[in-house]
Amino acid sequence: MQIDVAESAAKMFGSGYNCAQSVATALAEKAGLDPDTLKALAAPFGGGVARTRNVCGAVSGMLMILGASHPDMDKTEIYALSREAMARFESEFGSVICAKLLAGIESDTSPVPSERTKEYYAERPCEKFIRFAAKLAESMLGA
Q: Is the pTM of this model over 0.90?
């Protein structure tokens, strides 16, 4: 039985992957890419890029997959596809910026990752962003 990409991405996040790694790695094989390479490539993009709370890591992972799975697109085409994906994410959640998505949740911009505890996962809405971004990227692989 094939596992759903949203479920796969959520499981990866729950096992300690960051948000970008979770989305990118869950879709690696569907995009014809090596999962270990994607995991390493996406590592700096968690927490809104190196925990700076800028562009959401789930969005970054989604864009990595779109770019890698459309190597023949020129810049205009891949920028348009990427903007469409970002607009759809923003329409769903109100922003693509990690700090805005996590508004009201205590989080810092230290480079030291937060400890992954039950409380960490319970207070953050990140799993829904990861699930959405994974499904959205999957739907756009053949675009």
A: yes
